[in-house]
Automatic annotation (TrEMBL):
It holds the Pfam family Amidohydro_1. InterPro entries: Amidohydro-rel, Metal-dep_hydrolase_composite, Metal_Hydrolase, MTA/SAH_deaminase. Residues 56-426 form the Amidohydrolase-related domain. Keywords: Hydrolase. GO terms for molecular function: hydrolase activity, acting on carbon-nitrogen (but not peptide) bonds. It comes from Iningainema tapete BLCC-T55. This is Amidohydrolase.
Length: 472
């Protein structure tokens, strides 16, 4: 666990410098500038010498995804969220072995696109909820990525997530009670929440569209009692904006503030349909927005007003979202689209997100959202060594111009040379060292089949109502 990376490029405020970075017991203990005496740094452990042709950055956060969606990537038709979700649920995996394989896949793709942490808003297999969580935790431990497992919970049935409009509708009761759901999460915390070992459990009601106040309030209580971070989807679609007004008579953000869910350890995925007053509430409560640009485009949800969030002082970071609304887990792609997309929304280029700001959002922004900015998110002496080494001789990062500019604005492929999580190396020479990725590829192939012709019964059931209430 003790090592030194020699002669590596790191970013300074507005340029780059070559340094040696020393890591002891998983902590960055020294960053030694060129020509300075390394002192005790050389005494212990291994050293990784680079030829000044590699860039070291803090690891990024894949701050919102759903790992088991990987089984359905590329197959769901161009649908808005509400219909997409109906199809997703009709074909959701019911075998924990499948959850295991796609958690591995999500971790590997995250690592190889610059991520060292993943927030998995994990879809639970009914009747096997704890087993699902245990399986994902096992996969993340094996790969060695820092894991934030956020079991996805709700206490209302799927049809309740679509606004009623003028129609009189009733919904089936959800199959599990609110109390039983909260007990389940508490048990997951007891069994799996081990922050010191890189495994964290979050409370994560899926969103206002499918959750009662009692569920949110129970989650607040667990969050306070066990010091857990809070996660949720928020106002991803226009339909959810309508639904919030029907359900609460106010915006979803106003309601979440009223019931106490917003805080400096709350991360909220999407945040597409917020008012200016809502944005002020997010800033005041120090909540974090997780921007999932590819998913928002794929599902036609809209463009989240990220530049407005930044101007209001709201912390923003990036997520890939699940692999069937993206349909990949390439964090660098999400960071690129998630930063340049907004140039089209504001003529004032001085508001646009620079590549260096994008890198900070993806690293320190993620750490802040998970209440870990003291420990993670930058190359700082005293912080944990979650770091990614990029190969600047990769064709996609050549010729030599501005490495961070190329990494964010270019189309980097196979650029990750090494990754350390908590000082443990999990990628070396571009290959994951902790699991056999060739075997994983074979298993994913064997456990799936070509499914281009499938049809969703639930979509057939709800599509007419959706079109009516949305005025289509
Ligand atoms: Zn999501």
């Amino acid at each position: 666990m003790n090592f030194i990376i020699k002669n590596v490029l790191i970013a300074t405020d507005d340029d780059y410098t070559t340094v040696d970075v020393q890591v002891v017991d998983g902590i960055i203990t020294a960053i030694i500038k060129d020509g300075q005496d390394a002192g005790s740094a050389n005494q212990d452990g291994r050293s990784h010498t680079t030829n000044g042709d590699k860039l070291l950055l803090p690891g990024f956060f894949n701050a919102h995804t759903h790992s088991s969606e990987m089984w359905q990537r590329g197959v769901i038709p161009p649908f808005p969220l509400e219909l997409w979700l109906a199809e997703l649920y009709d074909f959701t995996p019911l075998d924990p072995e499948q959850v295991y394989l796609t958690a591995l896949g999500t971790a590997v793709e995250t690592l190889l696109s610059g991520g060292t942490s993943v927030v998995d808003h994990l879809v639970l297999i009914p009747g096997k909820e704890l087993e699902t969580i245990a399986t994902a935790v096992r996969a993340y431990r094996e790969v060695g990525i820092r894991a934030f497992v956020a079991p996805l919970i709700q206490d209302e049935s799927l049809t309740a997530g679509i606004p009623s409009g003028d129609a009189k509708r009733t919904h089936e009761a959800y199959f599990r009670s609110t109390a039983a759901t909260l007990e389940l999460i508490e048990e997951a915390v007891r069994q799996f929440h081990r922050p010191d070992e890189g495994v964290n459990i979050l409370v994560a009601p899926t969103g206002i569209q499918l959750c009662s106040d009692a569920l949110f309030e129970g989650c607040n209580e667990l969050s306070n009692r066990y010091n857990l971070c809070r996660h949720s989807h928020l106002l991803e679609t226009k339909a959810q904006e309508k639904l919030a007004l029907e359900k609460y008579g106010c915006t979803a953000v106003e309601h979440l503030q009223r019931i106490g869910y917003l805080s400096d350890r709350t991360t909220l995925a999407h945040c597409v349909w917020l008012t200016q007053d809502d944005i002020t509430i997010l800033a005041e409560t120090k909540s974090t927005v997780v921007h999932n640009p590819l998913s928002n485009l794929r599902l036609g949800s809209g463009i989240a007003p990220i530049l407005k969030y930044r101007q209001a002082g709201v912390n923003v970071t990036f997520g890939c979202d699940g692999a069937s609304s993206n349909d990949s887990q390439d964090l660098l792609e999400a960071i690129k689209i998630g930063s340049i997309l907004h140039n089209a929304t504001d003529l004032d280029y001085q508001h646009w997100i620079t590549p260096r700001q994008a890198v900070e959002m993806a690293s320190l922004g993620g750490a802040k959202g998970l209440n870990l900015a003291e420990q993670l998110g930058s190359l700082t002496v005293g912080k944990k060594a979650d770091m990614v080494l990029y190969d600047l001789t990769s064709l996609s990062l050549l010729p030599r111009t501005d490495p961070i500019g190329l990494l964010v604005l270019g189309r980097p492929t196979n650029v990750v040379d090494s990754v350390w999580v908590n000082g443990k190396q999990v990628v070396a020479s571009g290959k994951v060292t902790t699991i056999n990725v060739d075997e994983l590829r074979q298993e994913l192939f064997n456990h799936s089949q070509w499914t281009a012709q499938r049809k969703s019964p639930t979509v057939a059931q709800i599509e007419a109502h959706y079109r009516m209430v949305m005025g289509l």
